[in-house]
Automatic annotation (TrEMBL), chain A:
Basic and acidic residues composition-biased segments: 480-512
PROSITE patterns: 4FE4S_FER_1
A Pfam match: LUD_dom
Domain 4Fe-4S ferredoxin-type stretches: 319-388
GO biological process: lactate metabolic process
Domain of life of the organism encoding this protein: Bacteria
Gene Ontology molecular function: any one: metal ion binding
Protein name per Swiss-Prot or TrEMBL: L-lactate dehydrogenase complex protein LldF
Biased composition (Basic residues): 450-459
TrEMBL record, chain B:
Domain of life according to the entry: Bacteria
Domain Cysteine-rich stretches: 3-83, 137-221
Name by which UniProt lists this protein: L-lactate dehydrogenase complex protein LldE
Signal peptide (from-to): none
Pfam short name (any one): CCG
GO molecular function annotation: oxidoreductase activity
Cellular component annotations (GO), alphabetically ordered: cytosol
Length: 512, 268
């Protein structure tokens, strides 16, 4: 009942092709992302200083990342001083082990959860279940995913791939086996669906003695954690249980309380297109006195799981600025058609395409295909509130896939081998480069193509089929531009060319 | 003012009419244009697929071929973006240190490289090039022109000043057409889905032609339109700007499959 798994998924193009054929999924996604896109643009346009806020957000994150060790130690001191306990987890397995042991120590076998990307990333629910502990998701969309034995497909709206009718069916058939069943005669009206979820969840909140959360931000100077949400379920999970365990990626730290000023403007407008999100919960350590509000026992599990590897990459590290607003997903034309599941991790869309191959490496077919899951249109970079140049990182990671090179893997500097299956492409790229370096050869090729143009097939075999399956081929003209120029403006061009060739050869020295 | 035309490998090989049109527009405006025959490709296909090392010699060649010119003009938003945005970075990484000269030269040439509409509007200060094109046209802003170069309304301003041309709005204009270089074959299903949606948007405008500043995107859009049996033809901005009431400058190539003069297709 812990939901499916992203393990063993096919490379992106295969999963995406299947999603493209799913017309209902495409309809759901187009509707949902189209609506939020327009609203975000409006919410952002309201702020005259958006560009400066964005630059400030990027700068704060960059500075923090450069001194990450320092700020994490300050955070640990502050959390500890406020009565909390800090744990360090190098990877998913260690984080899961720590959380499982902490829950076990309370003697409980149930926990309530605030929506959290970090716990999805490490597969915490499955790990808890294996230890006989049941985790209840309390975010509405996350609940839909959990009840539907499904996988999340969006950072902010994990069930974005479901429509109202599907949600009603899931509630009707599944709620009963998890707790309070759906009311009789439940319709697909949003208000009724929300009420059904509210009643179902209320029971869980009142009973739970352990809460598990992530955090949007951690303030180093005060040890304060921040969760930003819309439904109020987070507030319940963060305040009602006696024990609170927060699993947070190490890149979520910001130096000072004041830095929140920037991010609490950037985040809601980018993610839900709201000026301010309905609930912002902040807590510092544990409640000390009897009768004080909030959990009496607070544990912070700081998660690395590949983040320091990404940090070692001067181009790739900007992905760690991400505040998980999901604006890049909503605006991405590839995400809109491929859906979130094709990205094969908790992080779908453009951010997933640059984060997952850095956190997990590029060894699997899926992970090696992710940097190519983009037309490089740049819409993601344009909307990203912390100015992550996603296309730049994608191209950088493509280089790692096809050419290999130096990278940090599990903390060690390693030479990554080029991924398999790119030999033919590599040969073609080399050949193309050679031709482009030898304009005479280029001209010969163009002439050959022109002379044989009446013989060219309309549909290509092999890899070319990917083009002609859905598009006509352009007709090859009778004469290339350079041939036309030589014919029309002949002598001049020829003389110049000869001179240019000589120059180019002379300058290039030992190069082939 | 020494101006060179960087025609791009795609236009050179498949759409020579666009190159001749760009040349015609510039010469009509009194610009003396040179076409150094040692030019080839900006390296964008290699670089964007991850082959940075295969790109390096092409970056150096580009700088060598064009270093003697005041301006390099190209009828491609994405190639101009590749040169301006990426050549300096690639050159700095490859030729920094010992051969600092090449890196500096590449950066210098890159900064003098313009997409055609930028050159017309920003350098020549012209928005009316004296063109005549009596057709309904919709404009698709290609991604690298739109977002990397920030072309803004330059192409539109040029189109709005073409006599006889009726410009109609393209719904979802700013969304990518799905070409994306090797993306078109590596993720063919998603690329085709994006292209079909773009084609539907284009058809919904009732325009006779869809205009853009990139032949590679037009090749994809046009290929999809043709497969759908659509009558809308793809046409490069340069070819519209080159057309006058005396006829199109690129006559002859129009019949060779280049998106150009519409008169004969009008009959359809
Ligand atoms: S990459 Fe940028 S736009 Fe995408 S989720 Fe992260 S912060 Fe938001």
């Amino acid at each position: 009942m812990s939901g499916g798994t992203f393990l063993g998924m096919p490379p992106f193009p295969e999963a995406a092709a299947a999603a493209v054929r799913d017309t209902r999924l495409r309809g759901n996604l187009r509707h949902a992302t189209g609506t939020i896109r327009a609203k975000r643009a409006q919410a952002v346009a309201e702020l005259p200083d958006w560009a400066r806020l964005r630059a400030a957000g990027a700068a704060i994150k960059d500075r923090t990342l450069r001194h990450l060790d320092h700020y994490l130690e300050r955070l640990e001191e502050a959390v500890t001083a406020a009565g909390g306990t800090v744990h360090w987890a190098a990877d998913a397995a260690e984080a899961n082990r720590i959380v499982t042991e902490l829950v076990r120590a309370t003697g409980e076998s149930e926990v309530v959860k605030v929506k959290s990307m970090a716990t999805q990333e490490i597969g915490l629910n499955a790990a808890l279940e294996a230890a006989g502990i049941r985790a209840y998701e309390t975010d509405l969309a996350e609940l839909i995913v959990q009840l539907g034995d499904d996988l999340p497909s969006h950072i902010l709206v994990p069930a974005i791939h479901r429509n109202r009718g599907e949600i009603r069916d899931i509630f009707r058939s599944e709620m009963g086996s998890w707790g309070r069943p759906a009311p009789d005669g439940l319709s697909d009206e949003p208000a009724e669906l929300a009420e059904a979820a509210r009643l179902h969840l209320r029971e869980k909140f009142l009973r739970a003695r352990v809460g598990i959360s992530g955090a949007n931000f951690m303030v180093a100077e005060t040890g304060t954690l921040v969760v930003v949400e819309s439904e109020g379920n987070g507030r319940m999970c963060l305040t009602l249980p006696e024990t609170l365990i927060s699993v947070v990626g190490i890149e979520k730290v910001v130096p000072t309380w004041r830095d929140l000023e920037v991010f609490l403007q950037l985040l809601p407008r980018s993610s839900t297109a709201e000026r301010m999100n309905p609930y912002t919960s902040m807590w510092t350590g544990a409640a000390d006195a009897e009768g004080a509000d909030g959990p009496r026992d607070f544990h912070l599990v700081l998660l690395d799981n590949g983040r320091t590897d990404a940090l070692a990459d001067t181009v790739g590290r900007q992905a760690l600025r991400c505040i998980r607003c999901s604006a890049c997903l909503n605006v991405c034309p590839v995400y809109e058609r491929a859906g979130g599941h094709a990205y094969g991790s908790a992080y779908p869309g453009p951010i997933g395409a640059i984060l997952t191959p850095q956190l997990r490496g590029t060894a699997s077919g899926l992970d090696a295909s992710l940097p190519y899951a983009s037309s490089l249109c740049g819409a993601c970079y344009e909307v990203c509130p912390v100015a992550i140049d996603i296309p730049q990182v994608l191209v950088h990671l493509r280089e790692r896939v096809v050419e290999g090179g130096e990278a940090t893997v599990r903390g060690r500097r390693t030479t990554v081998r080029p991924a398999r299956g790119h030999a033919a492409e590599r040969a073609a790229m080399r050949a193309a480069r050679w031709v482009f370096e030898h304009p005479a050869a280029l001209r010969a090729g163009q002439r050959l193509a022109s002379r044989t143009r009446r013989l060219h097939p309309r549909r290509l075999p092999g890899p070319g089929r990917a083009w002609t399956a859905s598009r006509e081929l352009p007709e090859v003209p009778a004469e290339s531009f350079r041939d036309w120029w030589r014919r029309e403006r002949g002598d001049d061009g020829g003389g110049r060319e000869a001179r240019g060739e000589r120059e180019a050869r002379g300058e290039r020295g030992g190069d082939r | 003012m020494r101006v060179a035309l960087f025609v791009t490998c795609v236009t050179d090989t498949l759409y020579p009419g666009t190159g001749r049109a760009a040349l015609a527009v510039l010469e009509r405006l009194g610009v003396e244009v040179d076409f150094p025959l040692t030019q080839s490709c900006c390296g964008q296909p290699q670089f964007n697929t991850g082959y940075r090392r295969e790109t390096e010699p092409l970056v150096r060649r580009f700088a060598e071929v064009f270093r003697g010119y005041d301006h390099v003009v190209t009828p491609s938003g994405s190639c101009a973006a590749m040169v301006r945005e990426n050549h300096p970075r690639i050159a700095a990484r490859a030729f920094g240190g010992g051969a600092a000269g090449t890196a500096a030269e590449a950066a210098g040439v890159a900064s003098r490289t313009y997409e055609l509409s930028e050159f017309l509007v920003d350098v020549l200060g012209v928005t009316d090039v004296g063109a005549y094109y009596p057709h309904t046209v919709t404009y698709h802003p290609t991604c690298h022109g739109l977002r990397t170069l920030g072309l803004g309304d330059r192409p539109r301003r040029l189109l709005e000043n073409v006599r006889g041309l009726e410009l109609v709005e393209l719904p979802g204009a700013q969304e990518c057409c799905g070409f994306g270089g090797t993306f078109a074959v590596k993720n063919a299903a998603v690329s085709a889905a994006m292209g079909s949606d773009k084609a539907r948007g284009i058809e919904s405008t009732g325009a006779q032609a869809v205009c853009a500043v990139d032949n590679s995107c037009l090749m994809h859009i046009g290929g999809i339109l043709a497969r759908r049996g659509s009558a809308v033809r793809p046409v490069h901005l340069a070819e519209i700007l080159a057309s006058t009431d005396a006829g199109t400058v690129v006559d002859g190539t129009a019949a060779e499959g280049t998106p150009a003069n519409g008169t004969e297709e009008e009959a359809r």
